[in-house]
Write a structure and sequence with these properties.
By secondary structure, the chain is of the alpha/beta class. Helix content is 42%, strand content 25%.
């Protein structure tokens, strides 16, 4: 194996945080099957060339590769990418990971991907519109782009910040900044301005009693958006 065992061990010590479904990343593990199946129902992933922007430790990237996609995951978090690489080695699921920004990747590989995903990232960056433009550049004509983010309204503040971070402690305090949440109309404008067509919205809900997530038509807190690049 062409890897330094000491380096692998160093990042193995971090890996359990991303890939432990009971850790602070538990919500990502629990919503991942929902978002994966939603994407795969719209675009069967087998044989598709896919790029996952803001891939973190690779939870979505690996699951798309398991569906038969040829996946590239990009992120600016070096430690997260090391964890993703390590897990890919351990699981035997091949994913290409790259430490690069979406904008730089778009300059390098414009129009190369059948599917672009960008999940739970837009609300963490200073200029989400630039990420949407990069996604639009990366996807092939006729290809598909998927985003997920958090709506901005009193309900989303109550559920996503007060509820998830303070009351239920599902996420570390300070995970989200309410001012960076994005309304569906704002995201739609970013998408259209980037030359993409909005193809559909889906809401995601959490029941604190059953502790289960589900997809629905309520986009008031968490929501997903499908977009396409015209031929």
């Amino acid at each position: 194996m062409n890897a330094d065992p000491l380096e692998l061990q160093k990042f193995a010590d971090l890996a359990h945080r991303w890939w432990d479904p009971t850790s602070e990343f538990r919500p990502l593990h629990e919503i991942n099957p929902l978002r994966l199946e939603w994407i795969n129902a719209r675009v069967p992933l087998a044989g598709k060339k896919v790029i996952d922007i803001g891939c973190g430790g690779g939870i979505l990237s690996e699951s798309m590769a398991r569906k038969g996609a040829n996946v590239t995951g990009i992120d600016l978090g070096e430690k997260a990418l090391k964890v993703a690489d390590l897990h890919s080695l351990e699981s035997g699921v091949a994913v290409r990971y790259k430490l690069i920004s979406a904008e730089a990747m778009a300059a390098e590989e414009a129009g190369q991907y059948d599917v672009v995903t960008c999940m739970e990232m837009l609300e963490h960056v200073p200029d989400p519109g630039a990420i949407v433009r990069a996604a639009a550049t990366l996807v092939k004509p006729g290809g598909h782009v998927f985003f997920s983010t958090l709506n901005r309204n009193p309900k989303s503040y109550l559920f996503a910040i007060l509820g998830a971070e303070y009351l239920l402690r599902m996420l570390p305090k300070g995970t989200h900044d309410y001012e960076k949440f994005i309304t569906p109309s704002e995201l739609s404008q970013y998408i259209r301005s980037a030359g993409l067509d909005v193809a559909g919205f889906k809401g995601m809900g959490y029941n604190p009693l059953t502790k289960f997530y589900s997809l629905n038509n309520d986009t008031s807190v968490n929501y997903l958006v499908a977009a396409t690049r015209p031929l």
